[in-house]
Design brief:
- By secondary structure, the chain is an alpha+beta fold.
- The chain has 2 domains: about 5-55 and about 280-415, no CATH class; about 60-270, no CATH class.
- The chain is about 55% helix and about 15% strand.
- It is built from 13 helices and 16 strands.
- It has helices at about 5-15, 20-55, 85-95, 130-135, 145-150, 160-165, 210-215, 235-255, 270-315, 315-325, 330-365, 380-405, 410-415; strands at about 60-65, 85, 100-105, 115, 120, 125, 135-140, 155-160, 180, 185-195, 205-210, 220, 225-230, 265-270, 370, 370-375.
- The protein has a 6-stranded mixed β-sheet.
- α2 (about 20-55) crosses α11 (about 330-365), α9 runs parallel beside α12 (about 380-405) and α11 (about 330-365) packs antiparallel against α12 (about 380-405).
- The radius of gyration is 35 Å and the shape is elongated.
- The chain starts with a helix and ends with a helix.
């Protein structure tokens, strides 16, 4: 491997055929370059999809009622279903379903919100403490609704960063200020923010559920049930767990509220875990396609190396015959040809690797495309691909070399 004369021969051959060697190297380097770039964007798509689904808790389930669409047990269609506190309690205590967090939303009707006698138009929602985790909200100031507020039916409110900017821009902090909600004073005790760019939740003012039901004549009515399920080891297990959870809840609610089992519109459930699975499956298919395209490109480069080695052997047939006549061993001739194939493949492969990794490192963090975030590739995977390419290049050079040593010495000497 470290025979100086052997390496001089290799460089002499390359110098004599600069264009041919350069084009071969470009085909090999471009194969690695294209593969790494494609894999990087495949990973970027997966990163982007994960970021999209982390704006709320990754395993959240949302349940809300609507109207029935078919007759059932003598009950006419078109009935509005009303969820109640009992539904939440039965699901929590009697069904034996597996969840980590659970919350409720109740939206009072016909309310008027004032601050310093100015009307502010935001949605009011009564809720429970776990909503903060389920909605993936963070606190900028103060605190969130807690269990003590629930137990004492406290008149406290939590506003959003958006409301703070739009209503309390003249104050350093809105904490301690009072909102007049339909004639009842609510003290602001916290300011929350929504993770991600979606500010829909920041249009809401949250107060304790028990207070909302008591003060605004809600009784035991609720509008939404919200759950966060435990994450499993794989996305398939998580999806299966969520589907079983949804099935149990819908079965209970349909039976409790006299809804036909096949009436899918009466009780609506949003399960983002199933949607996430579809996106992950799509990403996996795209990454497989990228691998396929990249490998085909590499194979084209390896075929190019094999063809070049065949030409090299053809051009050096007489030289090979002379070497054999002088007593050169077959393996010595094979290694002479293999060294050139390995050298060209290795230099080209690592050049493509360095250029592609450098490009991803340079532009990856600055790419801002929907569902694509920070394209990158595992260096170990890319390096392994180059090693596989070098092995393939070695094999591609071996067959022409083996063919060369099998040529009879007399025939090789007669070659022009």
């Amino acid at each position: 491997m470290f025979d100086i004369e052997r390496w001089q021969e290799i460089f002499d051959t390359i110098r004599k055929n600069k264009l041919r060697t350069f084009l071969t190297g470009v085909s090999v380097a471009s194969g690695i370059f294209i593969l790494v770039i494609l894999l990087g964007f495949g990973q970027g798509m997966q990163n982007g999809i994960e970021a999209e689904f982390k704006t709320d808790a990754a395993t959240s389930i949302w349940v809300w009622p609507r109207r029935t669409t078919m007759e059932y047990k003598g009950l006419n269609p078109g009935r509005r279903i009303q969820l109640r506190n009992k539904d939440y309690e039965v699901i929590a205590n009697d069904l034996g379903v597996d969840y980590q967090k659970a919350s409720i939303l109740y939206f009072p009707n016909n309310i008027r919100i004032l601050y310093n006698n100015d009307v502010i138009t935001y949605e009011l929602a009564g809720t429970t403490p776990d909503l903060q985790t389920i909605e993936n909200e963070y606190l900028s100031e103060g605190r969130y609704v807690n269990q003590t507020d629930m137990d004492t039916k406290a008149k406290v409110a939590v506003i959003s960063n958006k409301i703070k900017r739009e209503v309390f821009q003249d104050l350093d902090s809105p904490l301690g200020e009072y909102l007049n909600i339909s004639g009842v004073g609510f003290k602001i005790v916290g300011v929350f923010g929504e993770v991600g760019e979606d500010e829909d939740e920041e249009e809401r003012i949250f107060i304790p559920l028990t207070t909302a039901q008591l003060v605004f004549n809600g009784g035991d009515k609720i509008n939404n049930l919200n759950y966060m399920l435990p994450e499993k080891a794989t996305i398939e297990e998580t999806v299966a767990s969520s589907e079983a959870f949804v099935k149990d809840i819908k079965k209970y609610l349909h039976e409790e509220h006299g809804v036909a089992p096949e009436d899918e519109r009466a009780i609506r459930v949003w399960n983002p875990i199933e949607e996430a699975k579809r996106y992950y499956a799509l990403t996996g298919n795209i990454k497989f396609f990228f691998w396929f395209v990249g490998i085909c490109t590499i194979i084209a480069g390896v075929v190019g190396v094999s063809n070049i080695m065949m030409i090299v052997v053809k051009e050096r047939t007489r030289e090979i015959g002379i070497r054999k006549a002088l007593g050169a061993k077959p393996w010595g001739i094979i290694s002479m040809i293999l060294h050139e194939a390995i050298f060209v493949t290795a230099i080209s492969g690592f050049t493509g690797l360095i250029l592609s990794m450098g490009l991803l490192e340079l532009i990856g963090p600055n790419i801002e495309i929907d569902y694509v975030l920070n394209p990158s590739v595992n260096f170990q995977v890319a390096f392994t691909t180059v090693i596989v390419l070098i092995v393939a290049g070695t094999i591609a050079g071996f067959f022409p070399a083996w063919r060369a040593v099998r040529v009879h010495t007399i025939d090789a000497l007669r070659d022009e």
